[in-house]
Specification:
Number of helices: 30
Radius of gyration: 25 Å
Strand content: 15-25%
Structural class: alpha/beta
Shape: globular
């Protein structure tokens, strides 16, 4: 018998509505939900084939322990006991901070997973938490805290009403809209153009987004900060600012005027390669629009000056009068005032600093770029144990070969995952987790608590299918790990006892062999506490429940939580960091003849975990180094020829492919590849290389404000491959 029901995807921010067919306890088909209140029948190929990805023979089903180099199945009781004993011994011998946690992107797309993972570390008393955000978006959190008083105060373009949208270093047609839930980005962009709005895509590659609508403007990689400087300079030069908003709601404007005084469009054109006349035309279009917005994503975030660039973007949107304005940039409202809650309770507001490099925590996490150093540097707080949850840092972090070396020195490495990827391959224990289709849920924290949706709504989903084997949800796993480590979840004995009680009652009532938390009950409690009816009420609206639309004039003077309630345009930490711009500018001038490396994404790939699906890699079993034909000729390369790509850190070897859409002087290498050392049967047979082997880690190579490593715009040397190479990389 086949049952058809509705849910929503949790692969990325889009949360597309899905119609799922289940036969005999197995998902047989996933289709777009045409009646969904927001997505209206849109879904990407990854979301529609996710059940086939999850149903791989490689799927983790039982706890595993590495014995003499081979993984062996063990019981949950044995796994929890042995891990707990090891952690207790490490904290007794070293310190509480000697136990670390890495939280990957997949953890963020569920509600309970990241909360209980954080609660576990709070119980241990360790601040050694690292996250994937420090690879691609911590700059936005760090800057938002400086400007608005809280890291999760995140602005977004009002794409439903904007008359001018300038997209910098983002490709939403392929990668979706970072942070913001925007369904069918291609359709939304074309709608702006159809109603007479102007769109500019500023990027070193003529991306799918640039081809979809509007005008494409080439920019040399890693020069975005200079584009923003001259944009602000020109905006001030034509007096296109809102003096009333600045006076009433902002501080520090005079410091900005002094900062951008010398950065004329003519000056910055030398490094950005954006002609001054073109930049001035963009500023004019932006200034003349009734509502306009600048928006950026990873292409800006992951550069060497990601924080300064994002800061200037936020400043431009603010002083032009477009912040908190229809058609400009807005700040959403979630089911509760999460910002007020966070400030009051110190959530995401820790001021602790790292042992190595003295970096300030961002969102209560430390920079991933110093994780290897925190493991390898001797001292009482040296990390000796790591938990990896919802991520694969050996593919996603800078200088990942060095990180692999560091991981191998740990006393214990524990991975919570659904597949045995690269990081799992060197783990001591692997704990099998449920996938999104096996758990009930609500939209994750950004749409739920912050209202980061172009069309606000709520939706609840039950689990579509039961776990297979002994897979367990992460919240239950962390609750049990806390007890095994002789501590309490969230550091509260009463909380541990309460959740243990709920788990026992739920498991008895449901006849579960493996005890688990009543996730629906917890999610229902969250909804009721925030005045959002109930979980069952939302289930009666299977296509989504409409919330109030976003409103202009609802943020400034109302929801900024700085000390004086105003937006701080020129925070001291950012002004201090800007002192290095002159040196950075000269460095760009001196390196104009050097190739710059950017990353690239395909519609069938999602970070590092969709390469184990044969249909997605059958015709594309490797990544390529994309290069402009002129650069290929200058470097003696032919199409599909093997090439060596080198930085000061490493060399990777892979075939080249000509791409005229690239700005000359730019090469592109898709990320997420390099699975040869994993336990994945399909992915391990692919030939791609890991681009992050080329990136530098360590405190001296991280951006000072956010602690992010540079993962794009990296100077590289490219030459025809010569001689033999034992692996896909080699150190220089």
């Amino acid at each position: 018998m086949t049952k058809t029901t509705h849910t929503f995807c949790r692969i990325c921010e889009s949360l597309c509505g899905l119609e799922v067919s289940v036969t005999n306890g197995k998902i047989t088909e996933i289709m777009p939900d045409k009646a969904h209140i927001a997505t209206a029948g849109y879904a990407c190929v990854k979301g529609l084939k996710q059940h086939e990805i999850y149903n791989s023979p490689d799927r983790l089903k039982y706890p595993l322990k590495k014995v003499n180099g081979t993984f062996q199945r063990i019981s949950w009781d044995q796994a929890l006991h042995e891990i707990g004993e090891k952690v207790k011994g490490i904290q007794k011998t070293y310190s509480k901070d000697s136990v670390g946690l890495y939280v990957g992107t997949a953890a963020g797309f569920g509600v309970l997973h990241p909360v209980f993972a954080q609660g576990f570390m709070t119980g241990l008393g360790s601040k050694s938490i690292f996250s994937s955000a420090s690879q691609d978006c911590s700059n936005k959190f760090a800057v938002s805290q400086q400007l608005y008083g809280f890291p999760f105060t995140l602005t977004f373009p009002d794409i439903e009403n904007t008359e001018c949208l300038i997209i910098v270093g983002a490709n939403p047609v392929i990668s979706k809209w970072s942070f913001l839930q925007v369904v069918n980005p291609l359709k939304k962009l074309r709608a702006i153009a159809d109603r007479g709005g102007k769109i500019f895509t500023v990027d070193p590659r003529k991306t799918e987004t640039a081809k979809a609508a509007g005008e494409h403007v080439f920019i040399r990689p890693n020069t975005d900060v200079f584009f923003y400087l001259s944009f602000l300079h020109e905006l001030l030069a034509i007096n296109a600012i809102d003096t009333d908003k600045i006076k009433n709601y902002m501080t520090g404007f005079e410091s900005l005027e002094a900062l951008v005084e010398i950065w004329t469009p003519e000056k910055t054109a030398a490094v950005t390669k954006i002609p001054a006349i073109k930049l001035k035309a963009m500023v004019k279009a932006y200034a003349n629009a009734k509502g306009a917005a600048l928006y950026c994503s990873t292409g800006v975030n992951m550069g060497s000056n990601g924080s300064l660039a994002f800061w200037l973007q936020e400043v431009i949107n603010a002083v032009s009068g477009n912040l908190d304005k229809k058609g400009g940039t807005l700040v959403g409202k979630g089911v509760m005032d999460f910002v007020k809650f966070g400030v009051k309770n110190g959530v995401l507001m820790k001021n602790d600093r790292s042992r190595v490099g003295d970096f300030k925590m961002v969102n209560d996490t430390l920079p991933g770029g110093i994780l290897a150093d925190e493991i390898l540097t001797p001292g009482k707080e040296q990390i000796r144990a790591m938990f990896i949850t919802g991520g694969n840092p050996l593919l996603t972090m800078a200088n990942s070969e060095r990180l692999k070396t560091a991981f191998k020195t740990l006393d214990i490495l524990v991975c919570l995952d659904i597949f045995p990827g690269e990081t799992c391959s060197i783990a001591d224990y692997i704990l099998p987790c449920t996938d999104p289709m096996q758990r009930p849920d609500l939209p994750f924290i950004f749409p739920l608590m912050l209202g980061l949706q172009s069309k606000p709504y709520l939706q609840a989903t039950k689990a579509m299918i039961a776990p297979d084997g002994e897979q367990r949800d992460e919240a239950s796993i962390y609750l049990d790990l806390a007890r095994a480590c002789n501590t309490s979840i969230f550091g509260a004995v009463l909380a541990q006892r309460f959740f243990d009680f709920l788990k026992r009652i739920h498991s008895v009532r449901k006849g579960k062999k493996l005890a688990s938390l009543p996730q629906e009950t917890l999610l229902n409690g969250l909804l009721r506490l925030t005045g959002q009816r109930s979980f069952n009420y939302l289930l009666k609206h299977p296509h989504g429940y409409q919330r109030k639309s976003h409103q202009e004039n609802s943020f400034l003077d109302k929801r900024i939580v700085t000390s004086d309630g105003k937006m701080h345009l020129a925070p001291e930490v950012l002004i201090k960091a800007s002192k290095g711009l002159h040196e950075a500018f000269q460095k760009e001038l001196d390196g104009m003849d050097v190739l710059k490396l950017i990353t690239k994404r395909a519609v069938t790939t999602h970070n590092s975990w969709t390469h184990n699906y044969e249909r997605f890699v059958a015709d594309n079993s490797t990544n390529y180094l994309y290069i402009h034909p002129k650069d290929a000729q200058a470097n003696g390369l032919k199409d599909r020829q093997m090439a060596d790509v080198s930085t000061a850190i490493a060399t990777v070897r892979l075939p080249v492919k000509f791409l005229k859409d690239l700005m000359p002087g730019t090469v592109a290498l898709p990320h997420g590849w390099g699975h040869q050392h994993s336990e994945l049967k399909i992915a391990s047979k692919t030939k791609g290389v890991n681009v992050n082997l080329l990136a530098a880690d360590g405190p001296e190579n991280l951006e000072s404000v956010s602690g992010m490593a540079q993962l794009t715009g990296i100077p590289v040397k490219v030459k025809p491959a010569t001689g033999s190479q034992k692996s896909s990389w080699s150190g220089l």
